[in-house]
Amino acid sequence: MPSPHLAESDADGLALMAYLGWLRRRWWILLLAAALGLGGGLALSQIQEARYTSTTSLLVRPLGSGAESNPNAKVNLDTEAQVVRSLVVAERAKALMKVDTGADQLVKSVTVKVPPNSQILQVAYEANSPEGAQSGSHAFAQAYLDLRKATAQKTLENETNALKQQIADLNKALSAVAGRIAAAPSNSPERERAEAERNVLTSQITSLNNRLSPLVSAGSDPGEIISDARLPDSPSSPNRTLNLASGMGAGLLLGIVLALVLDRLDTRIRRGRDIADRVGLPLLLELPVRTPSLAVLPATHRVSRELGRLRNVLLSAVPEPAQGGRGRQLLICDASAGTAAGFVAANLAAAYARTGQQVALITTKPDSTVGTITGVAEGRHNLASVLRRDVPPLKALAPVPGLGQLRVLVPGDLDAEVELPVAGLLEILHELSARFDHVIIETAQPTFAVEAQALGRYVDAVIMVAEAGKTRSGEITAALQQFEQVNAPVIGAVLAPRLPAPAAGAARPASSGSSGAAGTAGAASAPAAPANRPKPRPSPGPSAESTMVLPRMQSSRPGPAKPAPGKATPPANPGTPGTPGNQGNQGTPGKPVPLNGTGGTYRSRGDGDGRSYALDSGEDLG
Questions:
Q1: Distance CA 620, CA 602 (A)
Q2: Domains of the chain
Q3: pTM surpassing 0.90?
Q4: Where is the composition biased (Low complexity) (predicted)?
Q5: Are 459 and 489 in contact (CB under 8 A)?
């Protein structure tokens, strides 16, 4: 069982790669948005009005009699900063500045800062001119000090007057008590009470005088300007650096949002998991991003190894045909217009052929690149001529150079505007599946090619090929719905990289057997045989288009006796095609011929025992 930690690590890696891929795809949006943001910041700096700022620093001292007795007393500067920006101070500053601007407007231009761990206020004023900024800063600082001093003096005056009034009242009471003392007899209780009252009044007067003396001598020092406003040399705003940085940041943010939205709205398939997540179709294989040109790749290539693994999976996943002695039929179709299905079909067929099994590759796409990929030059025999019944399917097959077990049936001059006869295609598949282990059919997308849907219900498995960065999820869904309507066995999808278009010089030549291809380069290179006459069969012997004969396995059933070594094998039935002496009486072309002891026909899937044989070296398929 896989470790959950490894699963989480893989998920994180996939998410990181997804984001990196998203940035790689949408980088131009981010770059454009950042450039627009920089341009916006520069434009804002150009249209903004220049503003100047000047600052005055104030040292604020505590006021009142308590300040002298407590030298560590401090002023709450947060409160004082609000006082500086009050309308009362603004009215005083307006008078000092001698301007007609309202006090509420002047307050909007004032900024007060409090440096930490200090008793200093920094009063900054912003104006359209350097002189206005200097004058405003100084005026507000001075107005604040004046207001603070006036408030302190008024408070001190009120306290002094109150103490003096209390002392005056006590002196009157003391004078009355002194009169009672003088009138009372000596050693009388009245005299003693009066003297005691006199002592109390005297003590109170002394206490009040002690409180009054500091107030009378105390001064009103609200603070002072320690750094007066200076005439600014350059404007404080607009700040071009700040505007450019802000514009770039805003542009990048908007670009990221826009790129994310576009990426979400983009339905193109880019990763293999997109197929499973968006469509729900199993992913059989995701080919590497870097794939060479359209060709049958060597067995050591990475793509060939991946397709070899897919072949192994298909051999175990695709069930054996219900009809004994019939080869597997695999339909590979495009999910969108392109060359991906042809590339996958050709290289997957090559992977099957490398195991020693006989493989036939058919394409129903008029513009298929299978011929170019496999290196099979189209001759006078092709699918079009087979459908016209000019030639049997086995004779129209062409061998692939370097892969004797792989035969290709190229499309020929098929008309893309005309629907192919499905009955004829099924006859071809039936005959080929009786002679080959695997028959691979390449078709266009079922939403375009009707035969793809029609053939899908008869084959053993269907594989859809998507092209990364080109195929959209809606196209896969539409194709899948077409196959589901006929209960076609769609087993999964293959994601191929974006493949290059075939070179102009690699285009397949026109069919020489086509009625509309007369006078073309293909027809001029070699004379065309009559379409209604099969090519004469050559005498047995080695051929470049044939394979080696494998020793035939003898079954346990009774059969023809094996000839003694050194003796010639007796000829087969005189009616058997391929016998040199009976070429003029050949059987009907295209019909399966039973195997005999000489193996003089295409190898069959089996002769009742499920055994497999190779092609006769004397059989000519070209």
A1: 10
A2: 13-48+238-265 (no CATH), 52-227 (3.30.1890), 272-509 (3.40.50.300)
A3: no
A4: 503-532, 564-590
A5: yes
